[in-house]
Amino acid sequence: MRCASPSSDGKRPQFGTRFLTDPRQVFQHNAWDNVEWTEEQEASAKKKVLENCQPLPSEKQEEYENRANEYWNDFYTIHENRFFKDRHWLFTEFPELCPQCSPNNVTHQKVSSTGRCVQDEERAKQGAAVSPINVNFPGATASYRILEVGCGVGNTVFPILKTNNDPELFVYCCDFSSTAVDLVKTNPEYNLGRCFAFVHDLSDVEANYPIPDGTLDVIVLIFVLSALHPIKMQASISRLARLLKPGGVMLLRDYGRYDMAQLRFKKGRCLSDNFYVRGDGTRVYFFTQEELHSMFTEAGLEKVQNLVDRRLQVNRGKQLTMYRVWIQCKYHKPLVPSPETRDGDAEHDCS
């Protein structure tokens, strides 16, 4: 194991600059950044995955699919808002969630009198020109709209609302679990004037969203796409892409191939290649960069960022090392759609 130094080859500097140059110092800190695996480590990880690749019987797989809502409701009933911490790292990794708060945007982009970068306002104008807005939907008068899919109990939504004080901001959030959405709505910080939470099954592409197509600036997916059955992922991303304004961006952070969580699964938990069921009945998939790139581009989006975040987390008390692998993506909707995308969109009404 070794840690790479910062470079100009597209590796992200945001998540920290703590690099392990002396393996003897591994327990000096809780985490190390940009960890690169040795060939031996990668070979060992592949071997471990192959040892647990026998899928469960089809009837068990159908049970987990059909009862997915029940398992997630049980999860949030048990844990309520105690399981996840607020994701304050979001604004470092995804400055699009609070453009006026980003030092990078202040430095490199022109900022208007509203505090938002001029590029964002121009994009909003273009989006409004392309997509006439039905004034009867929540947040219709806002000029900057964010949707988080798979919001859980609000560990992303509420930090956005606290940090981004743009009066033109409106945040939507949805989750498969009605229990999770109820917990969001009962949070003292939930404000219908700035936020709208609703129950939605991302994998049901025929289900209506309370937002017209072509009206969102940002869509956020944080460890949510991996919970879907792999055969439903492409259609789900394509449906979400229709909600974006021209120039709008989809942000994703999710589990990468050979993450510690994948390697810890025991036999009898595999559903299909790189897709597993946890002990509580919830499911998880582990992606490669190529798989995600293919999905986003198939949905008509263009790459802004697609990187692997390899981190070494350390439990200094127990002298344990834990190798995490996450993938982070940003893909935007072209200002001028391709002829193929235009033809496809013409077949759909706003829903």
Automatic annotation (TrEMBL):
GO biological process, one term: methylation
Gene Ontology molecular-function annotations: tRNA (cytidine-3-)-methyltransferase activity
Membrane among keywords: no
One Pfam family of this chain: Methyltransf_23
InterPro entries registered for this protein in UniProt: METTL2/6/8-like, SAM-dependent_MTases_sf
EC number(s) per entry: 2.1.1.-
Domain of life of the native organism: Eukaryota
PANTHER family assigned: METHYLTRANSFERASE-RELATED (PTHR22809), TRNA N(3)-METHYLCYTIDINE METHYLTRANSFERASE METTL2A-RELATED (PTHR22809:SF4)
Function according to Swiss-Prot or TrEMBL: S-adenosyl-L-methionine-dependent methyltransferase.
Similarity remark: Belongs to the methyltransferase superfamily. METL family.
Protein known as: tRNA N(3)-cytidine methyltransferase
Species of origin: Takifugu rubripes (Japanese pufferfish)
Gene name linked to the record: mettl2a
